[in-house]
Amino acid sequence: MNDGKRKRLVALLVTGVIASFVFATGCGGDGGEEKVVDTTQTEACVEYWSAYCRRMIDCEVINNESFGECLTLKAEYCPDLLFAEGSAITVESAGQCADEWRTTPCRYLREGLEPDCARTGTLVDGEPCIADRQCASGACSSYGMRACGVCTAQGQYGEGASCTGQYRGCDQGYVCDPTSSKCVPRLQVGDDCTGNLSGCSPNLCLEDRTSGSNRCFYDPPRPKLGEDCTATRACDDPGVYCDLHTLTCLSIPGVGDDCGVDSFVGDAIYCTSDAYCDQSVDPAVCRKRPAAGEACYQFDDGYGICDLDSRCDTSLDPPTCASLPHAGEPCYEGRCASDLFCGCAEEFCAARTCLRLRLPGESCAEPGDHCLDGASACKHGVCVAVQSQGLFEKLCR
């Protein structure tokens, strides 16, 4: 593996350094000959979706606790999702696409838009497919990689088309209405919009103070750290906010600093994830979140907060922070200690448990270790990646 690819993986993977992946030529169980190979399609596919999930966290579309769930969902069909017959994606271009994910503007991610890299393949309309990336049109009728579909011409997912599939989007110029799960025309600047469906992307749905109704407003490219944010009152870099007093994009304050004041609402609200904003003093100060065994910090409405590894147990007097479940323990209301995710250890389960996501090449010997679904399996205490799941052949041939 070259240094560039190694650095990309080290920056993305949850834990450990992967020097190479272990791949199995056999299927299932502990049998089958194993071999060590260099950069492969599965590795590239996992890297691609790791970059996507990390950027979703950076842009606060999902929280840090959701990384395992996000990667498990997206990489479940690796490498077939990116590399099935007809796909124009290569290992090299998948790495380049991963780099694009890392710098995709947050406003595009919030609207479900993707980078333009390698989105179309070579299969013509009417040919069988399981993923959009196989088709020259960039559109496959397959529903969530679970059934064979056909390549369809762009224009079939315009106004009124269903957009409920896991990987289904709408044609350019349309947006998916989450209420009806139908494609509707994308709104223009000045059009009325609603809270549950802005349809304004890449612009913003905001209240028009002259009329009291919501309208689409032009959202220019947002400034980055250190740049003036007078025009936008918002910044695009993760961990950055538009400060009311300086109208400059500043880093979100940490423990002991004054809370960052939002330029839109004028309230002191911004602190790093390990802190909360104590508004009982003036000026408001970022204070360290309490850990397990310490009293919760409670807001005026009674809501209590603790650090990322704890929850506020309101059954105690006073309400006290209690540890979130560890690897192998039942989830608490869908939550687990940091670096774990709540999921099923098997394909189906009656109750979810806290799992430690393990990637191909990493150890899976400890209780709660969970190899990436679909793309790998635990063999001899190591997560072994598959070279292909053969989904296209199984579903379409």
Description:
Among the domains are: 1-104 and 106-154 and 360-397, no CATH class; 222-288, no CATH class. The protein has 7 helices and 23 strands. It has helices spanning 3-12, 41-58, 67-75, 80-83, 91-103, 106-110, 391-396, and strands at residues 21-24, 34-37, 128-129, 149-150, 174-177, 182-185, 204-207, 214-217, 240-242, 249-251, 260-261, 268-270, 275-278, 285-288, 297-298, 304-305, 310-313, 320-323, 341-343, 353-358, 369-371, 376-379, 382-385. The strands form 11 sheets. Strands 19-20-21 form a 3-stranded mixed sheet, covered by helices on one side. A two-stranded antiparallel sheet has the order 1-2. It has a two-stranded antiparallel sheet with strand order 3-4. Strand 17 (310-313) and strand 18 (320-323) form a beta hairpin. Helix 2 (41-58) packs antiparallel against helix 3 (67-75) and helix 2 (41-58) packs parallel to helix 5 (91-103). The protein starts with a helix and ends with a helix. The model is unreliable at 1-38 (pLDDT under 50).
